[in-house]
């Protein structure tokens, strides 16, 4: 079995889909693995590191992909970027399928069997394959580090001979995996942390991290979690009550980190332009939902803008900005999933189509897009 790790082609992607550690493990499974020259450079892994782990170094994407049974990527490859892989080869990546039906159809046309890691069921058995969690953890941490760097003041309270400095007030909106890590990081830096979410289960999680929970806790809030553990889209009435509560709270904050997402929907708007203007000069908002339109009305995805003295950081791919750590965890997520696609007896690619993990993540197979949600509209 041959595994290929081509270099990422998006210039803003610094992660890599395999590390020397996972290369060794793949070889232990009986695979040959080719890593394109330079693929790990931005994550701090040199070609020599991969070669020492047992990988062959491919001089080009073409050479790396030749006769591959499995292609590992961070981002969805274009159809032309799987050229050379075997027909039916498994492509394992974050396929970012929502809104990209055309690209998926092209990938299907290239004859590969493509698996979207972000659609992995969030069940105990698949925890080690959960790329949303591994990357969100890093993004939540990085958001606080970015906010601290942009904020012109200290986060912890300081008692100095020149006088006391108050602790910064940090407010986390959306307490999923990224939000919980952001709370923990801001607490470690000495900030006074509050947090909000629409899912009742988060209240206890927030409090267990030593932060204060702020939310409209009405009947709708008690029902706001889907059976899958995600947030529902809230009613106009709830959003109005939430906005009123948040308006009063947000005006007193120094740093706001927003992480709220609803699967397959645009990010909910949580901070209006008027609320933003109530923050004092020098405050910072880091909008982790920038990629999905932003939780803040004035976020510009990919940019940092200053509005009335408030900085709004709309950074994209925050996890990718901690590339060595993000790649290490992502690569382990891929290894754990690929192990389920390989036969223990023959060591070859052998996909069990009765397995709920393969079924939930497979988007293209036998030349077609197989998940009806992403099939091209007639
Ligand atoms: P996410 O990225 O989908 O959303 C981030 C947070 O935003 C969520 O907590 C959500 O409730 C919140 N949110 C949505 N709309 C909001 C609004 N209008 N106002 C305030 N907050 C809002 O979330 P996630 O990090 O992917 O986590 C989703 C769920 O999955 C959680 O219950 C988490 O515990 C669970 N999870 C399970 C596993 C597992 O079992 N393997 C692993 C990771 C996460």
Automatic annotation (TrEMBL):
Residue ranges occupied by any Alanine dehydrogenase/pyridine nucleotide transhydrogenase N-terminal domain in the UniProt entry: 4-139
InterPro entries, per database record: Ala_DH/PNT_CS2 (IPR008143), AlaDH/PNT_N (IPR007886), AlaDH/PNT_NAD(H)-bd (IPR007698), NAD(P)-bd_dom_sf (IPR036291)
Alanine dehydrogenase/pyridine nucleotide transhydrogenase NAD(H)-binding domain location: 148-314
GO molecular function: NADP binding; oxidoreductase activity; proton-translocating NAD(P)+ transhydrogenase activity
Catalytic activity: NAD(+) + NADPH + H(+)(in) = NADH + NADP(+) + H(+)(out)
UniProt-listed SMART domains: AlaDh_PNT_C, AlaDh_PNT_N
Matches recorded under Pfam families: AlaDh_PNT_C, AlaDh_PNT_N
Record's keyword annotation contains tRNA processing: no
Record key words, sorted: NAD, NADP, Nucleotide-binding, Oxidoreductase, Translocase
GO terms under cellular component: plasma membrane
Keyword Protease belongs to the record: no
Domain of life the protein comes from: Bacteria
GO process annotations (BP): NADPH regeneration
Homology family: Belongs to the AlaDH/PNT family.
Function in brief: The transhydrogenation between NADH and NADP is coupled to respiration and ATP hydrolysis and functions as a proton pump across the membrane.
Name of the molecule in the record: NAD(P) transhydrogenase subunit alpha part 1
Organism: Methylocystis heyeri
Top-level taxonomy: Bacteria, Pseudomonadati, Pseudomonadota, Alphaproteobacteria, Hyphomicrobiales
